[in-house]
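Blackboard transcription, Thursday session:
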Amino acid sequence: MKKDFEEMLDTWTEEELKDFLPEQLPELDEMTRKRIEKRTLEKVKQEKKKFSKKQIIAAVICIAAALGIAGRGPILAAFEKLFHYLPGVGVYVDEEGTQMYSAEMIQDSFTENGVTVSLKNVYAKGIAIHMELVMEGENLTEGILEGQDDFDYLKEKYQVTMEYDGKAYALSSGSRQIRKENDENVNRYSRQISRVEYNTAQLYTVRIEGFETPLIFRLVPNEGTADPETLGPSQTKSGITLTASAEITEEGIAVELFQVYQTEGIQNKEPDQMRQELLYGLDYGADATSEDWIEIYNSQNYVENKDGIPLKMVPGSQENMWNGTRFVVKGTKADFPITIHRGPVTVETSETQNITLDLPETGETKTMPEQLEFTYGTVEILEISVSDVFQQKVGTGENAVEVPRRDVEISYRVVPKEGVFQMYAVAAKAPRGLANRVTSDWDYKENIFTFGTDVAEDQKTLEVTFSDPFLWAVEDFTLVIDAPVQAE
Amino acid sequence: MDDRELLQLMQKNPENGIRLAMRQYTGLCYYIVQQKLSGQPKEEVEECVSDVFLAFYHQYQKIDLEKGSIRCFLAVLARRKAIDRLRKLTGKETVPLEEGWTGENPVQKQEERQRILDAVNALEEPDNKILILKYYFGYPTKMIAAAFGLKENTVDQKARRGLEKVRKLLEGGA
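(Written on the board underneath:)
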């Protein structure tokens, strides 16, 4: 009956469900929630075909403003810091010495029907095996119906299975990216794929629907290295190691570069090109509504050939990855040695500080003297204001009651300290109010964040947590790559 | 932020809007999907929840606040997406769910839904709500117990008995 009943409920619409909505929404652990949020935003981003620079700026302002009220709990990066996998370059293992497996590729690519399929960046850690499946061809979405979503079509057309332990498993994709030619035909389709649970003693066979040739690999233990400089061409400055590789492709020179931090507690921010780009604008005092900062960004982040001529980036080729980025510039083997110029990037730490703030009287605003010292910056609490009392409805139906509440709004400024790492933002969290109002703002010129919640009529103090600062790593690099990596 | 403000934000800045929507409702959608995809890998659950919000991003303009709420819209969306994914995962992609809902015999389907609703509503409160929280929203017993101030075994007992009563009602018994 339980199963039957559940299936009956499957047919319910909003009309049937509306009287049974839970009053209290369940919380989800922050790590999982952030992972889902990140994946969703990636999908959204992919679908926005033309994202103007001004739109980028607006989105970043909102993202950072939202961070002011979010409070992110244990961050994903803290989990990831056990080791870094640097796709295409190697494995860096920290002192924890976590066991990783890299792949011994038996068949890593093939070409059928004009489509080249390759399996890249295969590795296993913890409970999951990870890989990137790339398909390249003239028109991968040939046959798509008008109005049909590219990703839906590609996913359906090129379903992936992996065989091991004598069984076949359907694989779903995490992050997916496409590249289009003339804004029409998809000529590159890449998918990040993870499979929880694996058996390292097996051969793995990956099959893509519509193709006869399989991709085959086995996992082998990889002890990695504790010295990131041994991974390839690299440069270390102020405890930051930049390492890179370059490969000749049909489109040009594909560059992958990664950053590893030797300073304890510092790690790369989740890939977030938009935030980084905006901060270039902030750092140089450019008006966020102008596009001047993009020129500044480009003047610090570029690749030049042996004659000192900057190589143009292939539009749409940039992809963010954990610990780094990948992009393609127009060029050939004759351009080597190439020089990579890299400006500051965003990093983060997991520092946390709590403070109890005295609330002013109802309807009043109080200037605050409190400051919180973080390693790389200072949080100055500026003002706290409490609104007049309002009645908030709690519960539904006969159980509904009105309770008196007051809105609280707090503003704070983040002031960076001098040094290589400079804090420019920090997440603030206060207990969620009953009104569940989410207010936030960010005055980016003054770097002042504002966030709010609501409290009881007689509440005298408010606990606020500031955590996970965002830092600006103000170092720059000039890295020479003598020759491209030879394709295996 | 109430529903109206959130929808306005979705219009003005969809990415910020979806972030705020996810901050509030990821837990709700996750439990619904998790219950439906019971036994499937966690990554499938997360991918499905992500698809729910992507669909929300595309469809939020359909929400009519005069008749419903974002919470309700997302709950139904989560259930549908989970069913679709389950069918794909188990190779039972016979009839797309959307098609099933919008296809023929809408009157019959509506009557069927009403019949189930009547049976659930025939239970006393909070038994009817416990049943839906458990079997639609996928709330764990502990969470339901806390919401109603009951012991966990009482919740399980009420769910079991409620299910039996609904079965009898649907079969035409008392």
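Lecturer's comment: Confidence is low (pLDDT under 50) at residues 93-106 of chain B.
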